[in-house]
Amino acid sequence: MASVMGREREGIDLDDPWQAIEACYEQGWTDGLPVVPPTEILVERTLASGPWDPDQVLLHEPARDRGVTAYKAAINAVMAGCRPEYFPVIGAALTAIGDPDFELHGPATSTGGAALMVIVNGPVRRRLDIHGKANLFGPGFRANATIGRALRLVLLNCLECQPGVLDKSTQGWPGKYSLCFAEEEEASPWEPLSVARGFRPGQSTVTVFAAESGHNVLAHGTRSPERLLTLFAETMAGLGSLSPGRSVIVFAPEHAGHLARERWSRARTQAWLYERAWRPLADLKRSGKIEPAFLTNPRLLEWLYRHHPAGVPAPPPDPGAAERISAEDESVRVHRGLGPDDILLCVGGGEAGGHSAFFPSWSRGRSVPFITKEVPS
Amino acid sequence: MTRILDPTLRTVKAVATTPRAPRPSGLAGARIGLLANGKSNGMLLLERVAEILGQRHAIAGVIRVAKTNASVPVTEDAAEPLLKRCAAVVTAIGD
Question: Tell me: domain A216-277+338-360, CATH 3.30.2320, correct?
Fold first, then answer.
């Protein structure tokens, strides 16, 4: 039997290569957009550009015990439209979302409808033209469009995350097609995100996050860091997405410049935002944000009462307290996240314009951490 | 002729497969495990299932285990009483 790099190849034989695009649709192998037919030669080239053995498992999903090999990842990367040289980035991103701490089963299947965000740092950005400037979340850039898409195709094809079947996203959002971008390190007031995450300058990395849709933070009217960051804190404290989860902020270069001019450090910015991104417990109750079951969940109770002067109530309040508002509840602060380190800061976007983005975590709970992995060279 | 390669795991043989436990011949006198998946109301649903099982099959009792996190597998420690002491286990997710 014919083989790709010595392995048995399972597939479909077609007389007319143009039939292949429709054949992939018929097999249910696409995300709705046409895919590049994964022919032997393309898959072979892709595998050859990464350091992995074809049978090496890059992603193991423990909840359903599925292992995705480099071979299967390469097929999906070809289908996504990736150039072979993108494969090391895809492999690193699969390793990151397969980290047990990422708890992939949740963001891959939940009604929350998370996208898999991939932030790329280091020299690989320039080598592969991974874009971090104007319209970095939008169309127009092959690496951005196809690297994130490769991850989604792996979820669809290998982890069987079919919409409405295993992927129960109530609405989902367009970032689920692809959400990959480079940090515009050159416009950052700070060290690159990868260095803040513990890697050496010059190392290329991917940082992954399970994200809700982004919220635009529009500010053209101020250069003051305090005024500017007030808008971010207000956006982060919006009740719709308020949770003990983490946050990603992608500062536009213009906004980053205002922080740089006044020498605001990364740590000071994170702490400032955390301190101001809160709502009174009474607001959460008034809005119906607190479900009665929250009050029986120790982790959510800890979030709700961690800034209460008397601490977490013991015994826990009865479920009816979810709707009962006491005078005290007006002054209990419920912050977004559990501390300043829950706010990841990076920089991206065009030189012009006061539009930054806030991406909340995907869940009403704590959700998953940021995971950073090195891209092999 | 062009061959396009299968991107799915359907043709991949599992490295190790866990055999299924034999089905119990009946539930009369059996102890039933209730494994709530980790969402808020899974146990609520399971309690109702246990009530119905009690009415129809005269089960001997239940053992309740609630995961704290729906995204991860049940731990070995939590699964132990289900494995060692139950004739059958019902699991549910309830949000």
Answer: yes
The reply to whether residue B69 touches residue A103, judged by beta carbons under 8 angstroms, is: yes
Whether A3 shows a pLDDT value over 60: the answer reads no
The reply to whether A98 touches chain B by the CB within 8 Å rule is no
Sheet strands (E) in B1-95: 2-5, 31-36, 61-66, 88-92
CA distance A286 to A306: 20
Residue A132 has pLDDT above 50, yes or no: yes
Give the one of B4, B41, B95 whose C-beta lies nearest to A38's C-beta. Answer: B4
Nearest chain B residue to A57, by CA: B15
Task: Name the residue facing A72 among B9, B15, B41 (closest C-beta).
Answer: B9
pLDDT (tens digit per residue) in A326-349: 998 999 999 999 999 999 999 999
Q: Where are the domains of chain A?
A: 15-183+197-212+369-374, 216-277+338-360, 278-335
Q: What is the mean pLDDT of residues B52-80?
A: 91
Count other Cβ atoms within 10 Å, centred on residue A293: 16
Which of A9, A29, A153 faces B3 most closely, judged by CB atoms? A9
H helices present in chain A, as ranges: 19-27, 40-48, 70-80, 87-97, 105-109, 124-127, 142-157, 193-196, 225-236, 253-261, 266-276, 281-286, 298-305
**Distance of CA A373 to CAs A199, A208, A229, A237, B81, Å?**
9, 9, 29, 30, 38
Nearest Cα neighbor of A91 from A204, A195, A212 is A204
Asked if the Cβ–Cβ distance from B70 to A106 is below 8 Å, we say yes
Answer whether residue A311 shows pLDDT above 80.
yes
Backbone φ, ψ for residue B77 (5° rounding): -60, -45
Q: Could you tell me if the ipTM is greater than 0.95?
A: no
Give tens-digit pLDDT for A99-129: 999 999 999 999 999 999 999 999 999 999 9
Contact B3 A106 (CB under 8 A): no
CA–CA–CA angle A162, B18, A109 (5° rounding): 20
Q: Are A202 and A122 in contact (CB under 8 A)?
A: yes
Under an 8 A CB cutoff, do A62 and B72 touch?
yes
CA dist list (Å): A284 to A107, A333, A337: 24, 10, 15
